[in-house]
Amino acid sequence: MSTTERAQRPATGTGYRVSRSSLTSWLGSLGFLAVLVVLAFVPIAFIPVVIQQTTSFLILVILASMWNALAGYGGLVSVGQQAYIGFGAYAVIFLTQRDVEPYLSIVIAALASGVLALVVSPLLLRLRGGVFAIATWVVAETIGLIILMQASLGGGTGVSLRALNVYPVADRRAYTYWITLAFTVVLLGAVLLLLRRRTGAALQAIRDDEGAAASVGVRTRPLKLILFVLAGVGCGAAGALTLANTLFIQPQSIFGVQYTAFMIFMVLVGGLGSFEGPILGALVFFVAQNEFADLGAWYLIGLGLVAIGFALFLPRGLWSLIGDRLPGPLLPIGYRLRSNKS
Fold first, then answer.
1. What is d(CA 118, CA 135) in angstroms, rounded to the nearest whole number?
2. Which residues lie in coiled coils (predicted)?
3. Is the pLDDT of residue 205 over 70?
4. By CB neighbour count within 10 A (0-12 exposed, 13-18 middle, 19+ buried), where does 222 fall?
5. pLDDT tens digit string along 117-148?
6. How many CA atoms lie within 13 A of 50 on its CB side?
7. In principle, which of 68, 70, 96, 285 could form an S-S bond with 76, CB 3.0–4.6 Å?
């Protein structure tokens, strides 16, 4: 073996090193922390409409990130995440009717949604592809119909979250914002932690080819279960926070399949299988929702056409246009082989 060939061997040679972070990832991490600090002061520094709109945006970030964790890393294309969104919202109603403090109810409702995901996982995670997608939709419809028949939860006419009326309006708006921000940080942090550990490489292997990953020893079932339960917690939290932000829900709306359509749109536009892409997609959807939602059916048709366009012509989403031009990853996720000369 020549001297050049030995130098280029990654495992034992001295020409390369394995690294996780870079100057770009350090700057990116500091940028994320700076954004979080700014977001923490939104209820203090901005007018009510900005606080409520930012709360809505953070809920969209949670939804997009959870669906991306499922489909982008676990290969689990679910069209039934509205099951956990609706369950989380109605769990808050159920708990507050029993005098549980409303913001504590939101936390319990999110965890209960994770338990729901754990209960249905033995049935759903044995399925794949289109069958899995249809089964998740059936589960969502079943849970929605069960809630619809509960007169104590408002039945088909909907129900208001009256327990939050004990707070002054300004305090309620600020508390709802801060708990939404806290859930966003915790859930995105959980995804980031999964991607930074050895599970990150396994998840990316599952994302690329689940069969090939299993053939080299990756335990696909436990990892998919973790993602499934995490997405259940996240979507349940999003449903509970949506209720806290709007104070009223109807089963036809909160269990509506439009939530899945919106999650798919955000992830497709932002970038499937990337950490940053769903955040970017949520921002695009938030702007589109505020600018064009009054157009009714044409707004939905437009969203569908845009999603199809991205799937056909930019399948890696908007984040690929930004990420490919950076000298390194924006966040320290995964490991990379770098030359000692760089």
1. 15
2. none
3. yes
4. exposed
5. 999 999 998 888 889 999 999 999 999 999 99
6. 8
7. 70
List the Cα angle 312/315/318 in 5-degree steps. Answer: 120
The Cβ of residue 158 has, within 10 Å, a number of other Cβ atoms equal to 14
Contacts of 54 (CB under 8 A, 6+ apart): 39, 42, 46, 177
Which of 82, 70, 72 has its CA nearest to residue 137?
Answer: 82
- Per-residue exposure over 159-193, b if at least 16 CB sit within 10 Å of its own CB, e if not: bebebbeeeeeeebbbbbbbbbbebbeebbebbbe
Statement: residue 167 has pLDDT above 60: yes
In the prediction, which pLDDT does 1 show?
43
Helix pair angle (220-246, 82-96), 10° resolution: 50
pLDDT of residue 327: 77
Residue 103 to residues 124, 177, 182, 210, Cα–Cα distance (Å): 31, 11, 12, 39
With contact defined as beta carbons under 8 Å apart, do 20 and 336 qualify? yes
Question: In 3-state terms, what secondary structure has residue 166?
Answer: helix
DSSP code at position 116: H
CB 80 within 8 A of CB 231: no
